[in-house]
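Appendix B, example 12.
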Amino acid sequence: MFDLGLTELLLIGIVALIVVGPKDLPMMFRQVGKFVGKARGMAREFSRAMDDAADGTGIKDISKTLKAASHPVQTGMDSVRKAASDLTKYDPESETGKLAAKRKKTVEKAKDTAVKKAQERQEAAQAEQQKTAEKKPKATAKKTAAKKPVAKKPAAKKSVAKPTVGKAAAQKSVTKSASKKSTSKTTSKDKA
């Protein structure tokens, strides 16, 4: 915007030295520097606000699309370069290392929880055994004092009756026994 060369700056410096004087010149340059710094800061802030507004409305996307339409070969090459740089940045070892570390932590947590639960179960079982052990001696002492030795009597023999099946079975058994008696009488007579 302003085109100042070395000769113009030298001329401005000589005029400022004559007008302001050698004593006040450093303070004047300090004030000018502060003013220029504030102006640059305001310009940066203004350009940032304009960029944010452009991002919000989507102008950057439209400008990218227009550039891609006007230079299709260049856009294709840019895509290839971006993909290649993404591949070179990718480190599979770090990804698998992270996953392995996560899995290892999960396994350790699971083991720790299992060990804690097992210890709790053992402690509960031991406490239960102690409670039952404390109760048993008292109960057995009472039982032994209450029981008296009892003499055992021999069991009486029971006669077993043969079941009758019916009239026909009864008649057969009567006829068989009668025939046996008759045969036994005849044989004893024959012998005598």
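Residues 95-136 form one domain. The longest helix spans residues 92-146.
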